[in-house]
Fold these 4 entries.
Entry 1:
Amino acid sequence: MHQEHTFNKIAVVLDTGALLAKYYRLLPRTRVDIFTTNSAVTEVRDLENKRALLEAIELEVIRVLDPEDRYVSTVLIVAKNIGSLSKLSQTDVQIAALALMLRGKYNNVVVITDDYELQNLLLSLKISFKPLRTRGITCLTIYSVYCPLCLYTPSNPGETACPFCGIPLVRRRLS
């Protein structure tokens, strides 16, 4: 019975920027279930926004949920394949993995984010997104990221330098 109910609702996943914008206050809760991750909550540091966010969590306006490891693994593989891994934060990965996990329970999942790199990842995962203050991206971009000296390719989010040579990684647009 409960499964059927969630299928009629939209799961909205908020990244840190959406939490800071208090986007959760604008959503119709009769049609929408709102989610975020612990890492996104941790990134909200200023007192006013933190208070408002904690109140929204306490009132169950927002559900804080971390994705299962298998979804994080899938997101990391896809991010590496499109050359986005070095530009994504751990929180970006968590947000995308949560959206992927929720896709099994909801007909429609939308991530609210202005982060172009996260949007690119979501596009490749076939997950909808809605930007807040930007136009947002319209087509997937695939990059090649590597060390120009030894050809090492990164496998960790946020990697910017080669662990062997110490020189900055190069990122080239493939498509």
Entry 2:
Amino acid sequence: MPDSPRLTLPGGFRYRLCMTKPDRTAAWPLILASASPRRRELLRRIGVRFEVRPAEIPEERDPGEAPGAFAGRLAREKALHVARQTGPEPNRWVLGADTIVVLEEDVLGKPDDPQHAVELLSRLVGRSHSVITAVVLTDTRTLETRSAEVASRVTMRLASREEIEAYVAGGEPLDKAGAYALQGEGRHFIQRVEGSESNVIGLPLDETLALLCQAGIET
């Protein structure tokens, strides 16, 4: 949607408006296959109506699996898992997503505990890393999927061990990939973001909206 106007949301996020007229026969309620409060908030910001049904699937990277392929597989598995559980009638759409932090070829997941969070963040400060989010939209009737993958580049400033430990002690990074939150106190470590900021939070708004528009889901 290169010529679509853009809307600025609270917090400075901008996304392209859907200019296609939705097919109201296809405007079935959306199911978000994620328990992430960040994704729920981002969807609400663009006015999407949805319900939440988290997908409980193993999130283990296969040997030799490329980071982007890993995120894409998990997003697809989440969406398909919930779509199969939901069943074909009434026809609905399921949105699955997975966000990973990649430093060189290492995928940094959520920390196991505070000490692990300190270790993860210590690897990131003073360097640049990638944040990749794969988004998959699945039709519950046909199980056909539409997908997008977005990568952003995040550069962090140098930080002392004391700063990192104080941040981790506040509890914010303990359920975040890479052990930081751009939308929270973790922003104080961020020097620069190249690409989508909402992607770094967990859901690239432009690309997600494009998938919803293509599916005829009204926003």
Entry 3:
Amino acid sequence: MKTSLIVCLSSLALALTSLAQSPAAPGAAQTSPAGAPPAAVGPGAPAAVSPGAPAAMSPGAPAQTGNVPPGESPAAPAAAVTATLSPAAASPPPAAEAQPSGGMLGSNWLIDKFHKGGPIMWPILIVSIIGLTVVIERIFWWGGRWFRRDPKRIEKVFTAIENGDTTEASRLSRGSRDPVLRMMWNGLNHQHASLQGALQVAAGIEIKRAGRFLVVMDTLVTLAPLLGLLGTITGLIRSFSFLGNEELAVQAVTGGIAEALIATACGLGIAIFALIPFNFFTSRVSNLEFELQTAATNLEVMLGAQTSARDLDFAPQAPASGKGSSI
């Protein structure tokens, strides 16, 4: 029980830590802000020309040819070139690439759906962790129960009782981990006081041990769909609350409907996941109860037969009635 509780709390803490991590801001490209003026160039500094880039001419500037109109002085070479652009500056800036969100599980699809499911996903997460812990614990318990079975020793105990050797039967059943043998040992040690009461108490302890956490699983099977339905209602309420705003109506309504569907799907998935093991473990408890009842009935019948045979052997015989002859 302590191990299961520790595992449950550790899993819950890990999940909460992973989901609480805020995504890291994507690395900003080292570019000048929009609207910033270009770097000032000194009057006598040559402009930086990228290899193979043609010189940009100022709009409306006449082309420099050998013939200069009369009355006009030829343009200075530096005045014709107004600016030079590198290929990266001449081409339009590419669209910013989507950066993956940070965090240990920030890019996980499940984490994204969890955040879109709304606040109701937190109790659904707690329910799922508890259900998974209970299922794993019960699987290990019933696996150990399968390896603890000892039908051959049970047959030896019944054979010893049938032969009238209850001491040997008690010795064979002592120290066993099989629930049936433990119940038989308890009944054999208390047969002189109350055999039936001792068997009932021992069988009740074994059945309670086998059915541990079944109430928790039954509660989870019922609670998970109700939490999903609650998430559906809250998502629809959120959707309809944005219908008055025409600008954000479409995005908000679709987000609320997605929240409702995700919460409902998660609640139903947890219920389905817990329902199958719950029915399986319930059937195993019923089978164990039948085995205990069968063994207890056989033990009572055999011990009762031994007691009846012993009483008949030690019963005083009645004197034979005869008529004496008179002298």
Entry 4:
Amino acid sequence: MNSGRSARHTGYRAALAFLDSLVNYEKLAKPREEFKLDNIRRLLELAGNPQTRLKNVILVAGTKGKGSVCYMLDAALRGCGLRTGLFVSPHVLDVRERIQLNGKPISQSAFARQVERLRRFVQVPALNRQSSIVNRESPVSYFELTAAMAFDLFARRKLDYAIVEVGLGGRLDATNLSEPQVSVITRIGLDHVKVLGGTLRKIAREKAGIMRRGKSVILGIQEPQALAELASCARTVRANLIRAESSVRVYDETPTQTGVAFQASGELGSGRFVLPLLGRHQVENCRTVLTVLGLLAKSDPRIKMGGIRKGLRHVSIPARCQVVRGRPLTIADSCHNPDSGRALARVIADYVKRRVILVYGSLGGKLVSKTVRPLAPWVETAVLVKPDSPRAMALPELKRIFTGLGISHVTADSVPEALSLARQSSIVTHHSPLPIVVAGSFYLAGEALRVLRRGT
């Protein structure tokens, strides 16, 4: 390694170490109990409020599909020749996935520079209670710093569009300090109930915090309770509510070998779309995307049907029913809530069409029984494992749930062991290997992908 490359690598390692020194609510054993925007707001002020200089922000919240919608929007806009920034969370394999420019994670050197630009504001101690300096006693979090890094980089690059995924909820999420041109709320379901509330109405109220007065908000398909609450919130803030299911018609859905094809018609006209993504649920997500693009095209003639179709044909989304290997067929999915469980079950029914070996691990506080129940008829046996997270659900609790669902299961002490047991079960018990499905958490999917890439 030459000296320049070594220095860059050292700077990147230092940046990661600083980031890891911050409180990371994604990994704490207990969920965050209090949400305030004071520290991230102060940090952004010290950085010159880059979020106010962003052009054409598309802010995306929801329980199911928000990440997929963000990746599809990014791919479609790039297909039209536009410059894009994408901020998503959590990452699957590499933290740089969170901040992308024109469809690619930023370089290690760019990541290190962004940390260096902002870390001095995070480290300065508070002078007094009235000071605008960030308070070390209530520090900026891991997620908040990465969001600020994205805002700062996107503002300086003068992008055509910035697609920003909300981390948790909406109203009190750091991303909500941006000023969206259009807000998007995908399907709302029961998740993070201890933080957001135990009813669809309460969760919808938190998500509705990303609506803006006089701006449009695009809604994916919603349950009646969630829809009623979102409509009420839109009236209160005087946002223009647009329902994707009323704006874009989709039909002639056809599973392909590697994804799904369908016909759609709306503001952009009519056309046939091919998504290299497994699952009919991605058609629902794409309908939301086409509704957003149809709205934006009214004021941006660069957004055209041909470019959108071209971009979507090449969209790639990590850990969303991702085919990792062909023999035995191995799929990694971030499935971690009841809606995701139903979607994954449909993927198995449409594409796999046989029983599977399930490698499953979950974070604590998740609705595991409701998530796994749709999968139960397709599971030959399950290998239960704890993801590498302090928030991981204990194996005895997982065993109790799987026993209650009547699913045969064994346990493993690590993800490599779990995958090894799954391969043994796949091959030994049948003439042709049974497919393997890894599900339950982004953290588990990421660990599994790393193991599988190493070939172990």
